[in-house]
Write a structure and sequence with these properties.
Largest sheet of chain A: none
Structural class of chain B: alpha/beta
Number of domains of chain A: 1
Low-confidence stretches of chain A: none
Shape of chain A: globular
CATH superfamily of the largest domain in chain B: P-loop containing nucleotide triphosphate hydrolases
Helix content of chain A: over 70%
Order of helices and strands of chain B: EEEHEEHEHHHEHEHEEHEHEEHEH
Structural class of chain A: mainly alpha
Shape of chain B: elongated
Largest interface: A-B, 23 and 31 residues
Oligomer: heterodimer
CATH class of the largest domain in chain B: Alpha Beta
CATH topology of the largest domain in chain B: Rossmann fold
Number of domains of chain B: 2
Radius of gyration of chain A: 19 Å
Number of helices of chain B: 11
């Protein structure tokens, strides 16, 4: 199963890379600090937000996803290993899918670590677990979509910095789509713009405890389209 | 083992490889010789399944590189010019990864074997980033050998390593010939001469000459050439040598002369007997074989 072999190597790379641990530390510190503040506020002003950690990630993944995925193909290109991968008896799609699943798996581990905060929350207050679960499912899919976009840009260049920068810009645009909708007075256009933005499928549904098929389908299709384009880009290495 | 038939590769309007054909038998070491940009790497990339040919057919161990690409790729071990490594992996993990990706189920024994063969067993748990260039080259070879493919393709494997290691790599390539078909590219002619059973000379995308190194030399060498050093004045020596039948040219070189005779004439006995007859002393006489280098440059300049 070539996909599994590529997947295992990628996971191994994440688990032995100091940089991946740095990102994990940054995510945990950031969410930890904000979670703590929310707890303090919840004593007097408002109840604790069950979707707090996922909502923090919904913004920060714009930066973390490119950093986690910039290596995936850019490094293979720079080191020349892409040429060996493309001459191995495996299909291009199994390479791309294996790498994507590796990144998504590492992200899932990270996400699982933040469940600790939920344990803290459960032990001191009554929280809506359904709401939390919906937000986590949402951010898991959301994260997968941002990682897929990050990998797409990584396949375009051998420079990791450029890859990360381009995918940050792309994700930022996808994220801002939510705001861009406000620029027009035409409600249909606004709805359309919102319909293709990352936030539009997260902030008012998953984050509010709402699990909707259209949002799952949206993130699912972002992943599928990004993987498809990446496979084509990787394949195009054969034609030049 | 390798069969190439009218293979061409076009990049846009540029023809990188033009209708080349050749065959390699099992156990044969074939050298692909040519200057940079002659189309050697492109040829190899088509054979390894990295890029499809624009025209023509090629097969590896009976598997067409386009129609039966997966089987063809499984039958090849490939070492690209720049050794591709994952710096953050250990030597062993790296070799195991390629073994598994090429469909080996139980890779442990063959990984052990191949690490032993390239003398990296004691380094198997080292991160690749800490390896020297020569070790990386051997690791690249290990990667190409680990799935025991019938055909091994090496793109300029002796570039950028020290002379001692060059000799080692050449020896390992020679040793590979025992049970693999090896296609090996180089732009160093003496290397092709030492290592290969057969040499294909490529220039501008075409095969301009092919044959055994010795055959090529015999076929293309302009005539027998000897170096003679005589203890007498230069003018007298030159006169004497010029008078010998069959001699076409006499050129001074160092303390002696390079004498070129027409093809198929052995002038050596005539030279020595005439010198003795004239009462001079013969200090040195040796055959000057033109290296493949000279032949190669000759062919290429004729092409232009």
């Amino acid at each position: 199963m070539p996909t599994l072999i590529v997947f295992r190597r990628e996971v191994g790379q994440y688990l032995t890379s100091p940089f991946a641990y740095l990102i994990a530390a940054a995510v945990l510190v950031l969410t930890g600090v904000l979670f703590n503040r929310d707890l303090v506020v919840s004593m007097t002003v408002k109840p604790a937000d069950p979707a707090l950690v996922p909502s923090v990630l919904s913004f920060t993944m714009i930066f973390f996803a490119p950093l986690l995925t910039m290596r995936l193909f850019a490094e293979e290109r720079r080191e020349g290993t892409l040429e060996l991968l493309l001459t191995a008896p495996v299909s291009d799609s199994s390479i791309v899918i294996g790498k994507f699943l590796g990144a998504w798996f590492y992200y899932s581990l990270l996400l699982a670590l933040t469940l600790l905060y939920q344990l803290v929350l459960i032990s001191i207050t009554q929280t809506d677990l359904g709401h939390t679960m919906s937000a986590y499912i949402g951010i898991w899919l959301y994260g997968g979509a941002t990682l897929a976009v990050g990998m797409l840009f990584s396949s375009l260049t051998e420079n990791q910095i450029i890859a990360a920068f381009l995918s940050m810009v792309a994700l930022m645009l996808l994220w801002l789509g939510d705001q861009a909708g406000d620029l027009t007075s035409n409600i249909d256009v606004a709805r359309l713009v919102r319909g293709i933005s990352l936030q539009g499928h997260y902030s008012t549904s998953f984050a509010a405890g709402l699990l909707r098929a259209e949002d799952v389908a949206f993130f699912g299709s972002v992943i599928v389209v990004a993987l498809f384009v990446t496979i084509r880009i990787v394949e195009s290495n054969r034609w030049r | 083992m390798i069969e190439v038939n009218n293979l061409s590769k076009r990049y846009g309007t540029h023809l990188a490889v033009e209708r080349i054909s050749f065959k390699a038998k099992p156990g044969e070491i074939v050298g692909l010789l040519g200057p940079n940009g002659a189309g050697k790497t492109t040829t190899m990339r088509m054979l390894t399944g990295f890029m499809p040919p624009s025209e023509g057919k090629a097969s590896i161990a009976g598997h067409d590189v386009v129609d039966d690409s997966m089987e063809a790729r499984r039958s090849v071990g490939y070492l690209p010019e720049r050794v591709p490594v994952y710096p953050d992996m250990t030597v062993r993990a790296y070799v195991t990864f390629w073994a598994k990706l090429r469909g080996m189920r139980n890779a442990r024994a063959s990984v052990d074997g191949v690490l032993e063969r390239v003398q990296l067993t004691d380094r198997q748990h080292t991160l690749i980033r800490h390896l020297s260039k020569g070790m990386r080259q051997r690791l690249g070879l290990a990667q190409a050998l680990v799935h025991n493919p019938p055909v091994i393709i090496l793109d300029e494997p002796t570039i950028g390593i020290d002379p001692q290691q060059v000799i080692e790599v050449r020896e390992s390539v020679r040793a590979l010939g025992a049970d693999h078909t090896v296609l090996f590219s180089t732009h160093i002619l003496s290397e092709a001469e030492q290592v290969c059973d057969r040499v294909l000379i490529m220039d501008k995308g075409k095969i301009v000459a092919q044959g055994k190194p010795a055959e090529l030399r015999r076929k293309l060498q302009p005539g027998a050439t000897i170096y003679v050093e005589i203890q007498t004045s230069a003018t007298k020596a030159r006169e004497l040598l010029k008078a010998i039948p069959g001699v076409e040219a006499v050129e001074a070189e160092g303390n002696g002369f390079v004498v070129r005779a027409s093809k198929e004439t052995d002038i050596r006995s005539e030279v020595s007997s005439r010198i003795l007859k004239a009462g001079y002393t013969l200090l040195e006489m040796r055959a000057v074989t033109s290296s493949l280098e000279a032949i190669f440059l000759d062919i290429i300049s004729k092409e232009n």
